[in-house]
Amino acid sequence: MRMRFVGLAMAGLLAGAGIFLTFTGEDLSSADHVDPPQRTDPAADGTPDRAADLADIFAFAEGGNLNLVATFAGPAPKDNPAVFDRDVLYVFNVSTDGDATTTEERILIRFGSAGANNFGVRVEGIPGIGTIEGPVETTLQQDGAQVLAGLFDDPFFFDSQGFRETLQTGDLRITSGRDTFSNQNITAIVLQIPLDNFNATGALAVWSETKRFGGQL
Fold first, then answer.
1. pLDDT band, residue 213 (cuts 50/70/90)
2. Cis bond leading into 37, ω under 30°?
3. Which of 131, 130, 128 is CA-nearest to residue 120?
4. With a threshold of 0.85, does the pTM exceed it?
5. Complete DSSP assignment for 88-125
6. Edge-to-edge strand list for the sheet holding 119-126
7. What counts of helices (H) and strands (E) characterise the chain?
């Protein structure tokens, strides 16, 4: 199971991706790109579970909407296709009562066939709406909510070379002039949902996970 955590104040911009948070003094286990390597790193496994390898999550409130993004199966070269796997369940867990250890809303996403050689996406449990489904690589709209699943330019910015050099030398070598994720693609699920649909009584907290049916590879 892959998990990432983000905290979000109702009135503010959210916390970004690639982070680890603690709530109420308790540590929460989390995953990163190619983590755990025994299941997702090609260097450790000749058949890595790319579809279940959750990369980053983003969550932010804007224009009366909550925007949720989960990226996975990347980064990958520009000429690689998106990764859709009908046997992986993607989940956004949302706490709405100000207690980040509870989950009041669970949004479930799965991919499946949508005609010959085509994939579709099904999103269930959207607060105030229910289910939206349709083809991937298409903006699906219903009752003020939007869903888009497909291939995107990887939005994460990081200098991996500088990070490794910093660990080796003890001197800060990270620079904004290098981006390891530049010109890399990633598969993503993007949701936009009206904030009022959540009926929140406190600050929102968001965390995401993937689950493979039948067990991990």
1. confident
2. no
3. 131
4. no
5. EEEEEEEE-SS-TT--SEEEEEEEEE-STT-EEEEEEE
6. 2-7, 205-212, 88-95, 105-113, 119-126, 130-135
7. 2, 13
